[in-house]
Amino acid sequence: MLRIHFTDVDLARTRVVHEPDPLWEVALSMHRFQTRQGRWAYAHWYRGTCQRLRGNGLDRVLRKMLLPLFHRGPYYPDFLNPAESSEGLEAGLEAVLATPPRRVLAELQTLARISGAPPWVPELARPDSRRELVQALRDYHDTAIAPYGDDIQARIDADRIIRCRTLLDGGVEALLGGLGPDIRWKRPVLYVGHPTVDRDLRLDGRGLKLVPSYFCWQTPVPMADPVLPPVLVYPLHHQPPPVQSAGTSLTSLLGRTRATVLRAAAAGATTGELARVAGVSASSISQHTTVLRDAGLITSQRQAASVLHTLTPLGASMLRANLG
User: Fold this and answer.
1) 250-323 CATH pick, 3.20.20.70, 1.10.10.10, 3.40.50.2300, 3.10.290.10
2) Global pTM?
3) pLDDT grade, residue 192 (50/70/90)?
4) 3 state SS for 34-87
């Protein structure tokens, strides 16, 4: 259990990022290769990425260099997830290169002690040796993350709609308590369920940066070093893919009412709000949302007494292509 202690200043400084952090997505996507847990949620990504990795010869680099560093276990080095990564991939990679050798070596020794590591790993303490790692991370991102950038951003946009509504309805404390089933708020502590972490993190006025992650599966991830800027990466919600009958055409769904519903769901809307926008009854709008949800265009989540509808990546893509 991770226990994050807040002051009033920390609550005021808590924020949710609006874009995917490229190096966090790189790290957590590598964890998807190391377990079958949640494989159904990433099946399309997993198949396509494996093919591209083999096609450009990166599968060996992944096995020999990257996976030993990004170990799915109780620890992997913090310097691989610098704060500068929130400014973009290149800024993050430059920060990896610029990490002081003493810190790199200390974290790699911790990795070897806790999770095990190949004998070549300490060489990464030398900046010149780290350049090969940085190039491998860049190539991996271009192969495994960049092709899915629109889908990942659409998921984050939908999540932010939910977080914004929760914040407006219940404040920061409701936002913190609603991040997931393994996260519980009891003022002034945020309790985060974690199978390998048992410690207290005192924010001491630094605030908390919340990072939604497409590739984070179920268990939120903190930085290991409590001295670093506090970050909590939390998983986005995944739903099983819809089951469609043969011959179903998505374009047949776009009558006037459903097109209106799809547009309204782009900003997030409850069932009642959709009914008012479309000018139909609540029972009728439920039929339309069911069809759109079964087609994989929207996702619906209960928020208190309401059901909030947002776009899926497919719905966002279809809206851009067909509705402008």
Assistant:
1) 1.10.10.10
2) 0.80
3) very high
4) CCCCCHHHHHHHHHHHHHHHHHCCHHHHHHHHHHHHCCCCCCCCHHHCCHHHHH
